[in-house]
Fold these 3 entries.
Entry 1:
Amino acid sequence: MSAIPISYPITPQGVDETVLQPSKAFKQEVTKVLFAIFFFMIVYLLLMVAALLLAFLCGFGGVMLVTYMPKFFTLMIGIGLVGLGVMVIFFLLKFLFKKNKVDRSHLIEIKEHDQPALFSFIRTLTQETASDFPKKIYISSEVNASVFYDSSFWSMFLPIRKNLQIGLGLVNSVNLSEFKAILAHEFGHFSQRSMKLGSYVYNVNQIIYNLLYDNDNYGQTLERWANISGYFAFFANITIRIVIAIQWILQKVYAVVNKSYMALSRQMEFHADAVSAYVSGSDHLITSLRRLEVADNAYNRLFEYYDLWHKQNLKPDNLYPHHIDLMNQFAREQAIPVVNGLPQVNSNSFARFNKARLVIKDQWASHPSTEDREAHLNKLNIRTETVTDSAWALFRNAEALQKQVTEKIYSRVNFENPPQALDLHSFRKLYATEVEKYQLNHKYKGFFNYRNISVVNLKSFGESLSDAKSLEDILNDQALDLPYIIEGMKTDIHHLDLIQQGVMPVKNFEFNGNRYKKTDAAFLSSQLNAELADAENQLKMIDAKIISFFIDAAAKNGQSARLIERYSELFQTAESAEADLKKYSEIMEIINPIFYNNLPFTEIHIIMAKVKNNEIVIKERLKNLMNESTIPQYLSDQDKKTLEDYLSKNLDYFREPNFNNDALMLFNQAMHIYQSVVSERSFTIKKNLLEWQLSFVE
């Protein structure tokens, strides 16, 4: 990328400095957090006093026992008592020695002599935001920017310089004005004295988290102590019970502190937004917030395609041209304008897809919603001109840097043979093939993209149900909105049910712009279910009209009987796929806890027994599928080999105390193929039918 003149985005002039003052809500949350921290300190000190008293009594009792009854078993009991007291105190103090080190393995540090323009840009920005220049600057691959540091207990008392991480996916997605606004937001977290409380609360949270969940080393120490002697094992078990009781108390405290911290964190985000607006303008952060949602989605989709093409021994030479190309292709698909090479996303860009009417303020969220942040920034109303140059203008040898990061991502990826480079031309060609494979004809306007066609009584088509002259007459705006309205209703009903059950702990929520209490959830759910039934009937009628329209057209070509036959085949396949996907979801829901939770052996055995029971049905179903004549076309040779391997073995996934990782990997591969093949077959039959019936009206 050739060098271009760099224009530093102007800083707004004459802005009232009161925008930087903490808001009333911020001060209220600070007060709550201070009380929460004070509460934690009182509880912790009481626990420590109790632990010291226990240690004293255990030590005194052990010494007395050995003094008055000097035998081997009393000596072991005495040592065990002392060990019990020491281990409980150690549990409460172990956080003093814990350092929370941020993983840097995916990062690349850059120096000023390599990137002088970028460092100059950041130095000017830190001066404007009255924050310290970063200790180190790193680049990563993703759509993100953050300030981070290694923390420990002592971080609450010692000054620590922060590091800056810049994701090249973010650089790929913004102009210079937006880049300045984003970095100003990050520096804004540390530019005001009032914001430093956030770091303090963060470290308190880390201490409680360490006591509750970060216990691997402590558990290993207890285990080694218990293995020395049966006497010590007895006292180790008692220690565990005491520690569990302490953790139960701390869990209650953690809920109080963490809830307060999250509320403060949301206010800190608003404050950092105000700092950003003060030095760069409100509008640039707004436009970047919206676009970064698209950019992040495109980044994740990109790697889904890369995973797919990995089987073809392909590796991207530079992921960033692919990323921006995917962003812009997505924008064109959604009729979003692309200006200066970037999608111009706003709050209305995806309004059609989100028809949910229920609004719940997540009290556990660390960030406000994009809508709330945008409203706050618009209220500040600080405007500046936009520097439309790409943020890449700040980087020297940008293309080489992009390739270096791409290579780092793939440094741990194994290929069967030396991989072929996937350049932009090849990417576009492969992407177009994938899109064509899974895209329905644009004449249906996306009406069938994300759902099955409603099952209708095909015997009722003796008379025409549709007087439409064209497909356009049926697929009006009202009809096209209906599938999204239905999905919105289903989402709202699900959340209302969770509120009723207490799974979603909220006292108040908004629906249709009105405020409701938890007790209103049942009534609203009932009302929505009635609306949903009516909307689904409307959708079924529209589907019936479309089918009738094409059957009438097919009749003129002598093909109506064949079209009805193909619809019957489609309905049967869709019903079969729905049953298969339900089996897949059930078994994955059963097994997933072993991947994400540290479960006791008894619970793991129960889970694996359930997996085995469900697996019997799925294996039988897979055998039947592989014998069907239409299935092999959806399976690669590797997929067939994987399924044959899976079906030929009675896999033992867990043999206490270890998991069989190879067996679990084969299970996951087989389940993914199972889910993929039934979905692809159902979709392909639908796509082919919808494409074929268009020939009768063209």
Entry 2:
Amino acid sequence: MEEVNYSEDSIRSLDWKEHIRLRPGMYIGKLGDGSAYDDGVYVLLKEIVDNSIDEFVMGAGKTIDINMSDHKVSVRDYGRGIPLGKVIDCVSKINTGGKYDSKAFQKSVGLNGVGTKAVNALSSTFVVQSYRDSRTKIAEFAKGELVREEAEKETTQRNGTAINFIPDESIFRHYRFIPEFVDNMIWNYVFLNAGLTVNFNGQKYFSEKGLHDLLLRNTDAETLRYPIIHLKGNDIEVAMTHGQQYGEEYYSFVNGQNTTQGGTHQAAFREAVVKTIREFYKKEFDAADVRGSIVAAIAIKVQEPVFESQTKTKLGSQNIAPDGPTVRGFINDFVKTELDNYLHKNPAAADALLKRILQSERERKDIAGIKKLANERAKKASLHNRKLRDCKLHFSDNHERRRDTTLFITEGDSASGSITKSRDVQTQAVFSLKGKPLNCYGLTKKVVYENEEFNLLQHALNIEDGLDGLSYNNIVVATDADVDGMHIRLLLMTFFLQFFPDLVKAGHVSILQTPLFRVRNKKETIYCYSDEERRNAIAKLGNKPEITRFKGLGEISPDEFGLFIGKDMRLDPVILRDANIKGMLEYFMGKNTPTRQQHIVQNLRVEKDDESVNPLILAEEEEVKEVA
């Protein structure tokens, strides 16, 4: 081995912006292109809005204006405004900010003075303007470097801060903001901050009942077994009910931060609910029966919170305050007192809750034998599971690449073979379907165990008992761009939405987009994902280039496939726009064939200038879009 010279010249010191740009994952988690809710571009937005929320919490400014295009964001609050002499320092010097004084910001999310600086360093353009006491100051940066500074001047604008930024496309490749992800983020802000108004691209967001409204927005009211229980106390708010869906669904927050991966507070809440209900009914129910079909939200405030990463998606704090009670004890005491009081005062809700628990118990016992046999088969199959080609890392591992873990669900061996040969074996796994899966709409969860393919998929994902042990962060449906492929997508979406809706709601499910055409000449090859891109490619290359239409994934060579599942992979996230999952599935996957047929006919599109595009495909695509 060649010896490498190691001397003083080998030691390098990076300034703040160089370090952030060199290691962005340390500050904002994964990068991504905006196709997933937790991609870095949304973390950038959140870091800015969090500062505006902290101003509202401190009683300064009740309105926040957010405007966004595909690539640009502007945020204007009406708080106190950054002190004019510190405008540049506050956005460009690490460990500079107003949140280190615990008296002023005891329960703020961003305590480390990094967030805004990370946004600055990772943006191709970053403009900050502060309005304070009839005066204003503006500064502009490019990739963290100050490029323009204007002297203070008078203004008639209200106090507050305005920030405009454009994420750097050299870091966030091919990114775009998806409004639905931002919409969900803003609703969470107003649910957690009564009296706050957020205007996003002209739409007003406001909530009167906090977490009660959050559950109403995210569930189908007709499926709820009893009215939402809404409990509030000092530094804690809880809302809960039971529905008819399978599994458990939680929305948890700390100091306004959506802790999508839970943490000590969510674990304590789950434990406290079971303990309180057992004591109230004086019966040792199985915990799974108590929590089965639960939909709940919990928000707590913690002094100087400790999160397990800079992106703050999982709470690690054991105590409410440095010298205060434990998170577990605090939540347990609150739930034990308030939930017990509520059930005593509302016997109708208590009776409905008991019926739901007993129903869960009957269902669990009914499938116990089938479940045991199916799990034994799945355990044996996992040793030589021909359907699954696993990867080395998993989402449950404590590894820096855990967010990259992906399971491609393919149709047939041909497509899975191409992906298997070109995938990243560290983070990408492949599950191969055999033909079309069963339409499971209206069936009970017994079918998940009776159907070998569903059972093996459930075990591959490790979601039988919830998402805590989820094996892959990204579940990607990779089917052909034809009628059969679209049908398989619908059948898989039905499976997930029927039995594991929280998997979709948490943003883990996407559709893989692969090119429909390859246009090339001797000098250049262009892959096209739409007919418009095909026409543009032909115009660019000219002189009758060679055009290939990919009708199935198996037609794409492994070498080419590697280009489409790497850093430039295009994913369409499956986003739920309607809380009425049952009604949606009944319409698209039920037995109302004439009604659905009429919908398809009314939405049929025919591309007259391109006979190679099958109108049935376009009609099916419309149906998929409506479901998503």
Entry 3:
Amino acid sequence: MSDFVRVTYGQTGKTQAPNAMGMRPMQARVYEARAAQFILLKAPPAAGKSRALMFVALDKLENQGVGKVIICVPETSIGASFRSTDLTSSGFFADWEVQPRWNLCLNGAEEGATARKVRAVREFMASPDRVLVCTHATFRFAFDEIAEEEGTAAFDDCLIAIDEFHHVSAGDDNRLGEILRRILSRGRAHVMAMTGSYFRGDTVPVLRPEDEALFRSITYSYYEQLDGYRFLKSLGISYSFYRDTYISAIPDVLDPGLKTIVHIPHRGGAEAYDVKQAEVGAILHVLGEVIGKEEETGFDLVRQPDGNILKVADLVDDGPERDRVKAALTREILGPDGKRDDEADRAKVDIIIALGMAMEGFDWIWCDHALTIGYRSSLTQIVQIIGRATRDAPGKRHAQFTNLVAEPGVETGVVTDAVNDMLKAVSGALLMEQVLQPNFRFYRREEGDTRPPVEMDGEGRVHIGIGGLMPPPTDRARQIVENDMHELVATACQRMDRATVADDVAPEVATQMVLTNIIERTYEDLTPDETEAIRQDLAARMNIAAIARRAAQEEAAQGEEDPAPPEEPGERDASNAMNLIRMVRRFINVRELDIDLIDSINPFREGFDVASKALDTPLLQQIQSAMVAQRIQMTEAEALVLWPRIKWFTAQEGRPPNPHAQDDLERRLAEAHAYIRTKKAERMRAAQTGA
């Protein structure tokens, strides 16, 4: 089983190092923005978003005239992250205190009728207490009822904090999004929105551009988070294939020695083959002999052939036992000193089996391996699942995400679904490769420029000079380049299809036509120059890793190394980012990095080629054959993009491209050439007839 993506990190320890007020670097960055009325925090799982909110909320309560804080989470299990917390012992001016009756996720008030939930929120609003924790759903119901009687003004001078903000949508049918727009429009409440994946599984944006412009945006990248860990060194992302039922492959992909979360397939999905309880039973049977349940926790006890006893938490069964299991999972085992007993807490449970749970906000720091069965069409969900395994913990050096999916048999002839499913897998891997990269900043490099062509600043941003790069012409374009590129990359990854990765697709179709289309659909009011500047930055961001890989492969093929520039301080502690920077620097030492080179690489195809190395030859051949069979029609936009390449081909070869050539791309150029000639003839006829 090969990794589609494997990333290594520097273990600098910076992520966990608190300042004099007890804040980690990300939290300190957020606290600097505490005076903003609307704050949008984009940070990965385990970055400490909940505590960042506590710091900001306490300042707003004490110094900014805010009277109440309402924290909204998508499900009750996340409510524990916001319970009372000692902050003064670490240097902050106040502790975070939530009266037990007002953490509705923990006191049982979230269970039962809607009327009771709304009544609890009403009672809080009338009380002198200052902090409430509830679910998104409870807040929606309470807002509707309270606003109907008192108007949106009832929430003036409140801080509304929305966790897992990607649940909000700019669509008219998203109730939470509509409520947020009403609050923003009135402009009297404060809002703090937090998410680890600021993009959705559909094509609807989280916020409308005019609403997002109101927010002070703070981004803390996956790279900053993981590179600053003390223990976790590497992350692998792989896909494995099975025949018949997925249970047959479980022994190959589920290592009982790794702390693992197993996400079984969605009901109704192609991979689900039985009722959910039977599938859980089959997984347990593969692990060993079920000998009973642990009385205190409800965990299943499974004896392996070597006599070792595994503890397995079943979150699939939604019967009365699940509450006991959930409570046991969230309960941390403490030592005599009141601090977490690492050894005992890690031994508490070995494997968790889940269905639609244990994803966003689920905190099990000991998880080494996230095993997901069945394709996930939502890239948001993939990022959330991977985040379960990327928390730093003593003794954990490697985290792994494995997607176990059905292998399309050659004999079945069912190839369309195979292609689509494969592209879903590759798009997920491509997205994670992009998400896990450092935070790049590109600038236009002029002749005689004395700045280093590649350098990293004190905040972990990598600055790279590119010849011919078009700088953002306006403040709006500059803000998009600085703040929105992760979202545009995610949108681009979701556009991966046969039209972007097949052998007959010219790179310019992907880097120019597809990326331009994405930007124009996301921001409808941009000028052509703004769009082109953003497109070039997006293409550079998606292709920089491919450029580095190609340079390294060419170097290896030649059996020699060009002298690299001297290492900068700290570079010898090689992380994936530093390796990438070194490869790019070495490349630039030999030749210029320019926008023409960037546009000559298809990032989607590069991702597909990397992923293809994990497939066996017959499966890869089948998928490639199916992609050829699913030929798309020529469009005028693609023909125009290909026209410069057609002219270059004709000049180089002394003939136009041949529609019967063996090379897929040459045949595609011939189709575009024929399309252009046909359209030109149609226009000439129309002009002659006066039509």
